[in-house]
Amino acid sequence: MTSLPTLFISHGGPDIVLADTPARHYLETVADLMPKPKAIVVVSAHFETDGVAVVTDPKPGMIYDFGGFAPELYKMVYPAPGEPALATKVFGMLEAAGLNPHTYEKRGYDHGTWTPMKLAFPDANIPIVQVSIDPNRDAAWHYAIGKALAPLRDEGVLLIGSGHVTHNLRAYFSTLRHGAEADPVLAGKVHAFTEWFAGKLVSGDTDAILHWKDEAPYPSENHPTDEHLMPIFFAYGAAGEGAKGRRVHDSVDHGFFANDSYLFD
Description:
The protein has 265 residues and is of the alpha/beta class. It has one domain: LigB-like (Protocatechuate 4,5-dioxygenase, Chain B), CATH 3.40.830.10. Helices cover 35% and strands 18% of the residues. The chain contains ten helices and ten strands. The chain has helices at residues 22-27, 84-96, 111-120, 139-149, 169-178, 184-203, 206-210, 212-215, 219-222, 230-238, and strands spanning 6-10, 39-48, 53-55, 102-104, 128-133, 157-163, 245-249, 252-253, 257-258, 261-264. The strands form three sheets. It has a six-stranded mixed β-sheet, with helices on both faces. Strands 3-4 form a two-stranded parallel sheet. The radius of gyration is 17 Å and the shape is globular. The chain starts with 5 loop residues before the first strand and ends with a strand.
C-alpha cells in the first residue's frame, strides 16, 4: 500500500461551506491530492483537552460550536462513521510514545473537522477518528503526537491537522464589524509570518519550526493564543523524519486572514 502524505489545512469559519471563496474551492479539491484514504485521523484546534485524547465513538454526532451564522449551518450533518478499532490503535501508539493519552467515548464533530471534511470528502464514507490538542502544550509536544502516529500513513490512514496558519480573531471581527479595510501594517505582519513558515516548512527546518515563537516574525500578532497553530506541528511530525512541506493553497481573506494549507511527504 502506498504511504499517504499528511495534511495541514486552515479550516476557516463554519460558513466556509457556503462561501464562494478560493479557500472553499481549494478544500473541494483535497481528495485529488492523494489516493482515497482507508480512514482519517483529524487533530482539530477546536478539540481541546488536558493532555491528548482519542475519540472512540463509532457514530459521532454534530457539534455546532459557533453562534451568529446562517441558520442552514445548524441543520447540516456530516454522517461519517467513527472507527473504534483504529481509535484503540491510535491510543496504543500514543501510550507507547509516553504521551499518556485518554479516551472520549462520545464526542461529535466540531467545525474544525466537519466543515473541511464536508468539502473535501462530501460522501462522508471514510471513517474518522478525532484526536485532541492541548492548548497548554507547545509545538514540540504536538509534533511528538504526529511522530507517534506516523506509521499509520503506511496503512492508508490520512493524518490531518486542522487549524489556521494565522488566527487573530479580534482583528478579523473588528474589520467585519466596522466594514473597514484591513490594516496594511497588520497585513504586512501576516505576510511576513506566513512566508517565514513557508520557507521553513519547505526546507524542513525542524528546529526553527518548533521554536516558532522565538524565531518567526510577529507571532503574537498572528496568534494571540496558540491553539490554532498546534495542528500544523502534528501534521509535520506525522510525515516522519526528513519531511518537507509543500504549500498547496495560500489565499487570504479580508487582506490578512491567511488560509495556507500544506502537504507533507
